[in-house]
């Protein structure tokens, strides 16, 4: 028999599945404002998802019309939106690339399609990855956006195994809308905002404990500055 905590957790998940956008507006955002009034004095500074970008690089294989059409069809099934074909901006003779040559596909999701895709990722797709242990916190960039890669398209429920001739992955970027005040506009503040939002959305991050041994963000900054200094020193000696 399920205990009370399990029932509460299941009900929260069903609430997120029903409408993750409404859950953010009526549940997540008020809780963040209530629990962290010092960090978020203005409701507009609360972190929120702005858009999701899905990219696939095909390289010279994009010149194969059948392969390109198949990739476009997979994008439409997975995202519910027709992708844009990315083209080269200039010619590179060494890589046999001509100017305006088709090289890949990209899709930008906003609004309802963005939240529907996020829900599918968190509660269905990640569960299909073998030996999945979550994503690294170091996938955040300086702007506070989170980028990760998926190795194959078969983990999406819309893709039929018999229709796949070749495994092809994606690069997915979760772009956050960070409207931070000037006194909280550092890289660590942007990453902190992303961590807070992902925590409420149950996004799987695996190495949160890596930073438990540090007493403050200033301590973490010193560690990363030391690592950057060692890298510069090694490069200068090569």
TrEMBL record:
A Pfam short name: Ribosomal_L5
GO molecular function: rRNA binding; structural constituent of ribosome
Compartmental location: Plastid, Chloroplast
Keywords recorded for this protein, A-Z: Chloroplast, Plastid, Ribonucleoprotein, Ribosomal protein, RNA-binding, rRNA-binding
Segments forming a coiled coil: none
Annotated ranges, domain Large ribosomal subunit protein uL5 C-terminal: 103-178
Positions of the Large ribosomal subunit protein uL5 N-terminal domain: 42-98
GO biological process: translation
One Gene Ontology term, aspect cellular component: ribonucleoprotein complex
PANTHER family recorded: 60S RIBOSOMAL PROTEIN L11-RELATED
Subunit structure: Part of the 50S ribosomal subunit; contacts the 5S rRNA.
Assigned protein family: Belongs to the universal ribosomal protein uL5 family.
Function according to Swiss-Prot or TrEMBL: Binds 5S rRNA, forms part of the central protuberance of the 50S subunit.
Descriptive protein name: Large ribosomal subunit protein uL5c
Organism phylogeny: Eukaryota, Sar, Stramenopiles, Ochrophyta, Bacillariophyta
Gene: rpl5
